[in-house]
Amino acid sequence: MTLSAPPREPTRTDRLLAAIGGLVAAYVSLAVADLVAARVRPEAAPVTAVGGAVVDRTPAVVKEWAIRVFGESDKTVLQLGILLLLGLLAAGIGLLALRHRAAGSAAVGAFGLLGALAAVTRPDSDSALDAVPSLVGAAAGAILLYVLTGRLLAPRPGAATVDRRGFLIVAASAGLAATGAAALGRAVGSPVEENATASREALRLPRPASPAPPVPAGAQLRVPGISPFLTPNRDFYRVDTALVVPKVDAGRWSLRLHGIGVREERVLTLPELTARRAVERDITLACVSNEVGGPYVGNARWLGVPLADLLREAGVRPPSEGGPADQLVARSVDGMTIGTPVEDVMDGRDALLAFGMNGEPLPFTHGFPVRMIVPGLYGYVSACKWIASIELTTFDAYDAYWVPRGWAARAPVKTQSRIDTPRPFARPAAGTVMIAGVAWAQHRGIARVEVRIDEGPWRDARLAAEDSSDTWRQWTYPWTADPGRYTLTVRATDGTGTTQPEQRTGTMPDGAQGWHSVVVTVT
């Protein structure tokens, strides 16, 4: 009786190639999935879907840390982190496949199921087709891994050699094919995105019935380094949870208005909305994640329709007039919910459904085709981008997205001031040094800004002309500086006579406060 030889023990080279095989299979799987997602829906791509699920489940303190450390690159860092973790798991699956060929391919399939589950359970998913990119990608990766692993196994029991050359040829061919597929997907693009881009290019903004007054001549100070009075669209801050910016076809967009106190549910298309009386206003927006002296604040000229008019036409009354709803919940196309006090929307301030920004249709990153703007409130309780519906409800009945995550349900903007120039640790020359910056207290206005050098007395800064109480205000202070190291501090007083408190607090639960200061060395 002839005994078969024991299975050949994999060498170190075999294990290395197996790990590489797992990585190649994962790369092909993601490339194929992304190619399919371009035809189905870009947000259904596995990394995007899983990343969105991770964002939703990340504790608020971790999100704040990510924004503080990585700024507007936090989403890129998250996606790179997911890819790094996938790479490590893929290498491990490749090693598993070397021992248990079928189990390795099954593991790839399991990750495909995970991506599919994440895609179809996202708040913005409305079709089982969102599972297709992950499933097709996983099938491609599982088959490739099975083929690659076969090249590393001996052709017959007891054989001394394996087909490493064949492994490298298949792996390289698959990698090149995947790269080509990814390039093709980018070149061809997504029909969803193409239609959205075409609809934005075709949109002609209406002439405002109530145009914004010209910016006062003295509102923009000629000081190098100071923030411009109107923030260019490309420089306007972006803080949201969308890993992929929603690109909405304006021709298919509609806004649903419903809820308690609404006499009759309404659905408006973009042409119907833009045909209404449009107003244009300069309004400063601020993010609640903005730390003292932080960059997440900007001022723009917005074009839109008054939200209060639309609500009153639908029969909505604010609580002060006996209305049953005290919260307006705006829902985005990506599932985000923003809760806003009805009283604030209807108290006479310029709360808008905006479709224009600085003279052009809203950029996709800032909410095209329509977003909400409510002066005086932080963005997380007022500035819903890519808005799709408005529901009238109560704060007792519903918690919007950020509230269960530790943020306050109501959040008026706190009075803030910032030194733009000189920058921290700057080394200006002795003589006259212009200290300058911006201050904001939307819907209350800025009445006074003061500057202090080290622990000296507070000195009044010169305020630029005020555009409106809803915009920030520039300020300057000419400082006669001698050589040495100094701490420069600023504080502002709003239109109600309230001065910023000295003690710094963090951003949670309803916005940071405290005096901004910078350290400079005069040479």
Q: How would you characterize the overall build of this protein?
A:
With 523 residues, the protein is of the alpha+beta class. Helix content is 33%, strand content 21%. The protein has helices spanning 12-40, 46-57, 60-70, 74-99, 101-120, 132-152, 164-188, 191-202, 270-274, 307-313, 342-345, and strands at residues 254-259, 266-269, 279-286, 297-306, 327-332, 337-341, 352-357, 360-361, 371-373, 387-393, 416-421, 431-440, 446-453, 459-460, 462-463, 473-481, 484-494, 516-522. The strands form 4 sheets. The protein has a 5-stranded mixed beta sheet with strand order 2-1-10-5-6. Strands 3, 4, 7, 8 and 9 form a 5-stranded antiparallel beta sheet that branches. Helix 1 packs across helix 4. The mean pLDDT is 93.
Give a short summary of the structure:
By secondary structure, the protein is of the alpha+beta class. Helices cover 33% and strands 21% of the residues.
Record the SSE blueprint:
Elements: H1 12-40, H2 46-57, H3 60-70, H4 74-99, H5 101-120, H6 132-152, H7 164-188, H8 191-202, E1 254-259, E2 266-269, H9 270-274, E3 279-286, E4 297-306, H10 307-313, E5 327-332, E6 337-341, H11 342-345, E7 352-357, E8 360-361, E9 371-373, E10 387-393, E11 416-421, E12 431-440, E13 446-453, E14 459-460, E15 462-463, E16 473-481, E17 484-494, E18 516-522
Parallel strand pairs: 1-10
Antiparallel strand pairs: 1-2, 3-4, 4-7, 5-6, 5-10, 7-8, 7-9, 11-12, 12-16, 13-14, 13-17, 15-16, 17-18
